[in-house]
Design a protein that fits this description.
236 residues, alpha/beta, Rossmann fold, four-stranded parallel β-sheet
Length: 236
């Protein structure tokens, strides 16, 4: 089970999604099986990286024309916070300066770079929106919409823009009790599913194993005990 998906479901979604994976720009505008498949696969990758002790990945998004200095500053700050930083590939204030071409060729290059940045969002645990002065250009709005559909944690948005995000608080902002409760809830789901099966009346949802393992890591980092969780008695 990966982030609420069985291996059979993942195989089916992979078959349905194979062709669509090549066009992330179009995909970013509309949810569907392909996005669910991406979330499941990335959850597995993040889980495996966590087992190896790999730090979290943060992707920086924003306008290169408006927030270039913010990109540089955030890159340094996030790196010093022991995070892997995915950022823009070039420091430039002008697309023309970067590409050296105009017209259709320039648009093709820009679209290719936009798609590349969506892949960076896909890989990340967290997306940091550098909206200097509240400015969000078309590319950044598309990146924000895609991040929301992938249920990424978002940072850098004012409250009115951050509504609807899947994880408004980072793990380190949660209290000890909130972390313990989240871990216990997902662990109980997992143990109940394994012990009684999904057809049982005691089944109350698929576990979010990514959240469960992140909570466990945070409890260990804080030196807190791991809650012991056991489902109610076995069925007769």
């Amino acid at each position: 089970m990966i982030d609420g998906y069985s291996y059979e479901q993942i195989k089916r979604l992979a078959k349905e999604s194979r062709r669509k994976l090549t066009d992330l720009i179009a995909l970013a505008a509309k949810p569907g099986p392909c996005l669910r498949f991406q979330r499941a696969i990335v959850a597995l990758v993040h889980f495996l990286l966590a087992l190896l002790g790999v730090p979290e990945i943060v992707c920086l998004c924003g306008s290169t024309a408006k927030a270039l200095e913010a990109f540089r500053s955030a890159n340094v700050q996030e790196t010093l916070a022991s995070k892997i930083v995915l950022s823009i590939g070039c420091d430039t204030k002008s697309d023309t300066d970067l590409f050296g071409v105009e017209g259709e060729e320039r648009e093709r290059i820009k679209q290719r770079l936009d798609r590349l940045h969506l892949y960076k969002i896909l890989m990340a645990h967290e997306v940091y929106i550098l909206n200097q002065g509240g400015y969000l250009g078309d590319s950044t709005r598309r990146e924000l919409a895609y991040a929301r559909q992938l249920h990424k944690r978002l940072r850098g948005l004012p409250p009115e823009q951050a509504r609807g995000t899947a994880h408004p608080l980072s793990m380190r902002e949660l209290s000890d009790q909130e972390i313990a409760n989240r871990y216990a809830r997902e662990t109980l789901k997992l143990k109940t599913l394994n012990q009684f099966g999904r057809q049982s009346e005691r089944f109350f949802g698929y576990p979010n194993t990514l959240m469960m393992n992140r909570c466990r890591q945070e409890l260990e980092r804080r030196g807190l005990p791991i809650p012991l969780v056991n489902p109610p008695g076995r069925q007769g």
